[in-house]
C-alpha cells in the first residue's frame, strides 16, 4: 500500500510541476505514518507572506505567544515582518520573517523588554494574534497586530491595522472586531 502511495505522489508531483506540494498518508492521525496535507502554493517569490503566516513561522522558530507583528517600513529590514514573541518565563524575542518566502531570517532576544506585562494581559484572553488578524482580514490586508492592555481596567484587546480600511480593535475574549472611528 505504501509503495502505491509513493508512486502516486511522484506521479502527481510530475503532473503538477514545481511549486506544488501534496502529502499522502495511510497512517492514523498522530502516528508516525500520518503526514499533514499541504495545499499547492505558487512558486517562490510570486506570493507575499500574510501576517498569519509570518506569526506561524515565528512561533515555529521561537515557541511562545505572539504579542505583536508588523511590517517594517524602512531601513535594512524594510518589508520584513517583525514578530514579537513572549515565552512563559517572560523572555521576549523579535523574530524577522521574509515577506516573500515566509521563512525566518533571524531572531534576537529583546534584553530591554520584559514580557511579564504581556503575559499578565494574556491571562484571560481566548483570541490570539492570528485570530485577531483573521477577524479583520476581510476588511483589508493586515499590516500590524499588537496586544493592548488598558492598565487596571481589564480590557485586553488587539489593535489591528490594515492597508486600506485603517485601524481596528479586536476584543481579546470574544474576537469581535470594531473599526476605530478616530482613524
Helix/strand structural class: alpha+beta
Number of helices: 4
Q: β content, as a range? A: 25-35%
- What gyration radius follows from the Cα positions, in whole Å? 19 Å
Q: H/E order of the elements?
A: HHEEEEHHEEEE
Helix content: 10-25%
Distance between the termini: 59 Å
Strand order of the largest sheet: 4-3-2-1-5-6-7-8
- How many strands, what sense, and barrel or not for the largest sheet? 8 strands, antiparallel
Low-confidence stretches: 1-47
Give an overview of the whole structure.
With about 180 residues, this protein is α+β, with helices and mostly antiparallel strands. It has 2 domains: about 1-40, no CATH class; about 50-180, no CATH class. It contains 4 helices and 8 strands, in the order ααββββααββββ. The chain has an 8-stranded antiparallel beta sheet. The longest helix has 15 residues, at about 1-15. Keywords: Signal. InterPro entries: PepSY. This is PepSY domain-containing protein.
Key phrases:
8 strands, signal, 183 residues, PepSY, alpha+beta, PepSY domain-containing protein, 8-stranded antiparallel β-sheet
Amino acid at each position: 500500500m505504501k509503495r502505491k502511495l509513493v508512486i502516486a505522489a511522484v506521479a502527481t508531483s510530475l503532473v503538477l510541476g514545481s511549486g506544488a506540494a501534496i502529502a499522502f498518508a495511510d497512517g492514523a492521525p498522530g502516528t508516525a505514518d500520518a503526514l499533514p496535507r499541504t495545499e499547492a502554493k505558487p512558486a517562490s517569490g510570486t506570493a507575499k507572506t500574510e501576517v498569519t503566516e509570518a506569526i506561524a513561522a515565528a512561533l515555529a522558530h521561537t515557541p511562545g505567544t505572539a504579542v505583536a507583528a508588523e511590517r517594517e517600513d524602512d531601513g535594512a529590514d524594510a518589508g520584513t515582518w517583525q514578530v514579537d514573541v513572549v515565552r512563559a518565563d517572560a523572555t521576549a524575542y523579535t523574530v524577522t520573517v521574509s515577506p516573500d518566502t515566509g521563512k525566518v531570517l533571524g531572531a534576537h532576544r529583546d534584553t530591554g523588554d520584559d514580557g511579564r506585562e504581556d503575559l499578565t494581559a494574556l491571562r484571560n484572553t481566548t483570541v490570539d494574534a492570528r485570530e485577531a488578524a483573521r477577524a479583520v482580514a476581510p476588511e483589508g490586508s493586515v499590516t500590524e497586530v499588537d496586544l493592548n492592555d488598558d492598565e487596571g481596567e481589564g480590557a485586553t484587546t488587539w489593535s489591528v491595522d490594515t492597508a486600506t480600511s485603517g485601524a481596528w480593535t479586536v476584543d481579546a475574549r470574544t474576537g469581535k472586531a470594531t473599526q476605530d472611528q478616530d482613524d
